[in-house]
Amino acid sequence: MSTVSWITARGLFGRRRFLMLLPLPAVLVLLAVLCRSLGVDPGQWAPPVLVGLGLAVVLPVVALIVGTGVLGAEIDDGTVVHILTKPLPRWQIVLPKLAVAAGVSAVTVAVPLYVAGVLADSVRLGLGLVVASALGALAYSALFLALSLVTRRPVLLGLVYVLIWEGLLGNFVSGTRVLSIQQWVIALADRIAPTDLLSTTVSVPVAVVLTALVSVGFTVLAIDRLRSFSIAGETS
Amino acid sequence: MTTLDTDARPVATTSTLDLAGVSRWYGNVVAVNDVTMRLGPGVTGLLGPNGAGKTTLLHMMAGFLAPSRGTLTLDGESTWRNPAVYRRLGLVSEREAVHSFLTAREFVLASAKLHRLPDPEAAARRAIELVEMTDAQDRRIGTYSKGMRQRTRVAAALVHDPQVLLLDEPFNGMDPRQRLHMMGLLHSLGDAGRTILFSSHILEEVEQVSGTVQVMVAGRLAASGDFRTIRRLMTNRPHVFAVRSTDDRALAVALMADPSVAGVELDKTGLTVRAGDYGAFTRALPKIALARQIRVRQLTPEDESLESVFSYLVEA
Q1: Complex ipTM
Q2: Contact A3 B99 (CB under 8 A)
Q3: What pTM was computed for the model?
Q4: The pLDDT of residue B49 is above 50
Q5: Alpha helix stretches (DSSP H) within chain A
Q6: Which of B86, B93, B95 sits opposite A87 (nearest CB)?
Q7: Cα of A231 to nearest chain B Cα, Å
Q8: Alpha-carbon distance A206 to A144, whole Å?
Q9: CA B162 to chain centre
């Protein structure tokens, strides 16, 4: 593990807001176990639990908390200067932080989604959700990490994207789904484990290409912004 | 000076920071205005009142702000968007927090590793010894006093033995003993050939640490050079006092006869006295008043703020 990853992980797990990650995945598993044990038809409970809660809320919210935390929290409290005053090319700072963010988000979300997927349908659906949500975690993390370098309110902007763009507009204006990470994740999961429980209008090639583009594009943006990172002076 | 274990190793090569016509503005606010200076080996104090632009200047030197105009180089290389300069440069900024969840040893060792030093453990140990934090190095930084955190940050900034060290208000939060130790450390680093620049708004701090000062006032470089010369200018400047008494007119006449007084103004509120020598005037006033049986009701030194002292320097 690189020193940047080590400090990032220590910082992430050492902050109280990490505890905020735990309730949502727990609720997801709890609901799935409850529905299964009560014998509810998976066609009834799986779409709202897997998609409505898992992919539309748990994945983006966990990725938002972690993605804006790995660099944004250090910018807020000033500790980022400690890492920036080192002779490291900036990609050697951004990539380890992205890896930690995407890794932590993926593990936090994939485990409950796997359990819920298995309970709803099959191991294959569980694995499909694991792979797709891991890719989604990478795209979300790249987006939110870059946001923490382009704005002082990354959490607010991230919430606007997740709640307004993906949540609200995605339901009413179908065209916006093409630019929705949530829809790409659904398309990818459905491709790996075809099922009636998941449905989207976005095609798999579009989902693959856009996931890659967003992940790479926002990472490059973050590296460039970190190169020009400025500290405001006392008179500003 | 106490027996300090602050002997810094001499550097093989020295570094020079060059600023040529450097300005920095935020919208309509000019934070740094056309500053030209050259900083070589030794300790230099960057002196100025709060808001003078010292921090902005330090951040530009450290590559954390782009100059709006002018050029700023370390040994000919721009510091902006150039992480390679941190091989030779260390920064202890004023606001920078430390990772409170790490111990000092972990924090300094992480710095050494990020610098890709060949023996990070030994470098971290030496830097911690240099700031006298060995005994507390295994405690979490969150449990430290402000002075201890400051010393830990200095250790992290020194771990790669930089030729240039920039420190923003390094004595803030330190007790007198820690302050003395830090002053000894800076002296030692400067004597070993490093270029040390530290900012302060306290004259006495700068006086005790550095022979050379750069004085900033309202974003401009107001004075530059030997501290003793500048200090003499400050001490010999006219001092202004507001005086109210039972007979202002008679007191004005008597004061004008005293050699310590350079001028007196009389108005409805009382006297405004300009004295050439602070001590001589404050000793003479009671005697003069007593001799004429005048009761002094108020004696207030005016214009004693640091800003006014610096403004005087600009005019001098």
Answers
A1: 0.86
A2: no
A3: 0.83
A4: yes
A5: 3-14, 23-37, 42-46, 59-77, 80-84, 91-120, 123-150, 154-159, 170-172, 181-192, 204-227
A6: B86
A7: 6
A8: 21
A9: 20
Which of A3, A82, A235 comes nearest B156 by C-beta? Answer: A82
Asked if residues B186 and B196 have their Cβ atoms less than 8 Å apart, the reply is yes
Structure tokens at A93: 């700072």
Q: How far is CA A180 from CA A65, A104, A211, A215, A227, in A?
A: 18, 21, 10, 13, 29
- Give the tokens for residue B60: 């530009």
The domains found in chain B, sorted by start residue, are 17-233 (3.40.50.300), 236-315 (3.30.70.100)
Residues of B in contact with A3 (CB under 8 A): 110, 113-114
A83's tokens = 């890492």
Query: Which amino acid does the sequence have at B67?
Result: P
DSSP-derived 3-state class of residue B69: strand
Give the integer Cα–Cα distance in Å for B170 and B131: 13
Q: What is the pLDDT of residues A85-141, one digit of tens each?
A: 999 999 999 999 999 999 999 999 999 999 999 999 999 999 999 999 999 999 999
Tokens 């990032």 locate to A8
Q: Assess contact for A56 and A167: CB atoms under 8 A.
A: yes
Q: Which of B200, B143, B197 is nearest to B165 (CA)?
A: B197
From CA A179, how far away is CA A27, in angstroms rounded?
28
Q: What is the pLDDT of residues A35-73, one digit of tens each?
A: 999 999 999 999 999 999 999 999 999 999 999 999 998
B115 and chain A in contact, CB less than 8 A: yes
C-alpha B269/C-alpha B159 separation (Å) is 60
> Can you tell me the distance from the alpha carbon of A216 to that of A223, in angstroms, rounded to the nearest whole number?
11
Chain B residue with the nearest C-alpha to that of A16: B101
Upper half-sphere CA count for residue A25 (Cβ side, 13 Å):
22
List the alpha helices (DSSP H) in chain B. 54-61, 104-114, 120-130, 146-158, 176-191, 203-209, 227-235, 248-256, 278-291, 306-315
Chain B hits for A85, CB-CB cut-off 8 Å, are: 62, 86, 89-91, 157
List C-alpha distances in Å: B259 to B3, B240, B281, B284: 46, 15, 9, 10
Would you call B272 helix, strand, or coil by DSSP? Answer: strand
**In whole angstroms, what is the distance from residue B150 CA to residue B148 CA?**
5
Residues of A in contact with B72 (CB under 8 A): none
